[in-house]
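Lab notebook: predicted structure, single chain.

Context: the supervisor wants predicted structures on file for every construct in the current expression panel, including those that have not yet been purified. This is the next one on the list. No modifications to the sequence; it matches the entry in the shared construct table.
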Amino acid sequence: MKSDIPLDPLPPVVQVLSMKMIASRELSARPGAVWADLEVEGAVVVTRDGLPMGIITPTSPATLLEDMQEITFAKARHAVAGLRQSAAANGTDQMSMEEIDAEIRACRKERKALKR
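Prediction complete. Output recorded below exactly as produced.
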């Protein structure tokens, strides 16, 4: 008996591991084949010397703005994660609000003095 319940998509890690990888030279030499792979795969990882350098994802005139926003949001999430990791590594994640406010005041005072 066939179920009408849709199966969950692959977890994100499995999706990334199963993405097609192509060398940047292949993109230059056979762009039509890469675009065909893109239609089938949904996204293609471009490599240089075997290392991932970029991801090509499909878009359309109707979804371009949303797609670009998603990329921007992903970059922002990545940046915030890096800042949090850096703060944890150097201990600034343990600062109190009073310490943070004092640091901000000191920086502003220093910047104001440099403008003079």
